[in-house]
Specification:
406 residues, Rossmann fold, VC0802-like, 3 domains, 9-stranded mixed β-sheet, 7-stranded mixed β-sheet
Length: 406
């Protein structure tokens, strides 16, 4: 549903707060929803019941991103879905190089509040008055007084020159479909060219799947950010004084933040190899930042194929930047041959990974007719242009990881 200012007025009233407290203990799954709303309609209007139930559901869904704070915060469904990962919010909030931040397109204020928690004075703007009111309510609920919010259209707004600007444009259209082209964002990326910000301190949150070629006119650094091995977002640090767009990778864990910004050199270009002792899957931030050759050189590893990001080596790299599987065997891909191999080795369960193969796990696994006590990881990929199947031991996370900034 879409919230209105009237809905927020009710939800923040004594009656609304009491209802939200009651709903904490209710079953709000889709299957039970009609019954809950029907019962509430005996005491509340339809709009009041729907608004309270929706917010109660959103607060439950928000726990993963906002922890215990979710219980007192205000959300819309779209704003919650687009809210940054909590570790990324914390990383950005404590990393800005100035005391003043302008959050353009602040929505419900989640990034603004992270900047404020990091000691910054924040001005959040958004053209949606409902989301601005939610941002104010969230700041009050969390006891944050270093953030102020105002209704303004980014197309008509000029940030102060001495501020850091964080720009989070809308990346979905009115129907909820993803917008691919950066100049069709709402507002378009090109508005950052109007801002006269000193020292190139403009950060733009982008989709992790952004087309790098579209950013050729925006020099600076494009940072791909991974959290625990999952690629979460891209962050453009626009600097009009830079000569080109550089790519960098960042890996955030609960305890540290690692950076990889090495530029691949001629010496990084290693020969291809058939599978060796280990199969290595670099972190997706490295893939998007085109750092696979740099990683291969550092790990003494080789690519299987020029178009595939899997690496292979005699040793598994001791790094949080990759996952590794010990290779037991490999063969040209053939279902009958793979089935016979698994039968001969008493394999009754497999996990299928694929990269560069049209075969899906759903298609392959029934064809293998598995029976046995052992389990394996089957990797479908290519080696120097030819389809292959690699049989690996089950993934075992390394217990001791070297903590370093690569």
């Amino acid at each position: 549903m879409t919230f209105s200012l009237d809905d927020l007025a009710f939800l923040t009233s004594a009656r609304g707060k009491a209802l939200l407290k009651t709903l904490r203990g209710e079953d709000l799954r889709d299957s039970a929803l009609l019954g809950v709303i029907t019962l509430l309609r005996k005491t509340y209007t339809g709009d009041e019941a729907r608004a309270a139930v929706e917010l109660a559901r959103l607060r439950r869904d928000a726990v993963e991103k906002f922890g215990t704070d979710a219980a007192v915060m205000y959300f819309t469904r779209e704003a919650l879905e687009q809210a940054s990962d909590p570790l990324i919010r914390r990383y950005r909030g404590h990393g800005a190089v100035t005391s003043e931040v302008v959050d353009v397109g602040c929505s419900i204020g989640s990034d603004s509040l992270a900047f404020a928690s990091g000691g910054k004075y924040v001005t959040g703007i958004d053209r949606d008055p409902v989301r601005i009111e939610m941002a104010r309510l969230n700041a009050a609920a969390l006891g944050i007084n270093q953030a102020k919010f105002m209704v303004a259209d980014a197309l008509d707004y000029t940030p102060p020159e001495n501020s850091v600007v964080f720009f989070d444009p809308g990346r979905r259209d009115a129907q909820g479909n993803r917008i691919a082209n950066v100049e069709r964002y709402q507002p378009p990326l090109s508005i950052i060219r109007r801002w006269k910000i000193k020292d190139g301190r403009v950060m733009v949150k982008l989709s992790p799947g952004v087309e790098i070629d579209e950013l050729a006119a925006y020099p600076g650094t494009l940072q791909f950010i991974s959290v625990g091995g999952d690629l979460k977002e891209a962050l453009l640090h626009h600097d009009p004084n830079a000569h080109k767009l550089n790519l960098a990778a960042t890996l955030i864990t609960p305890t540290e933040t690692l950076y990889w910004d090495a530029v691949p050199s001629y010496d990084d270009r290693r020969a291809l190899s058939k599978p060796r002792q280990w199969l290595i899957e670099p972190d997706p931030a490295l893939l998007r930042a085109v750092k696979v050759e740099s990683a291969a050189a550092q790990w003494k590893a080789y690519q299987l194929d020029t178009t595939i990001a899997y690496l292979t080596a005699e040793r598994a790299p001791n790094t949080p930047w990759a996952r590794s599987w010990r290779i037991r065997d490999w063969m040209p891909f053939n279902v009958k041959r793979l089935r016979a191999y698994l039968r001969d080795h008493n394999v009754g369960a497999v996990t299928v990974k694929k990269r560069g193969s049209a075969v899906t796990p759903e298609t392959l696994i029934p064809q293998l007719k598995l029976s046995g006590d052992e389990s394996r990881v089957i990797v479908l990929t290519r080696c120097q242009g030819d389809p292959i199947a690699i049989v690996c031991e089950d993934y075992q996370p390394q217990q001791q990881l070297v903590s370093r900034k690569d």
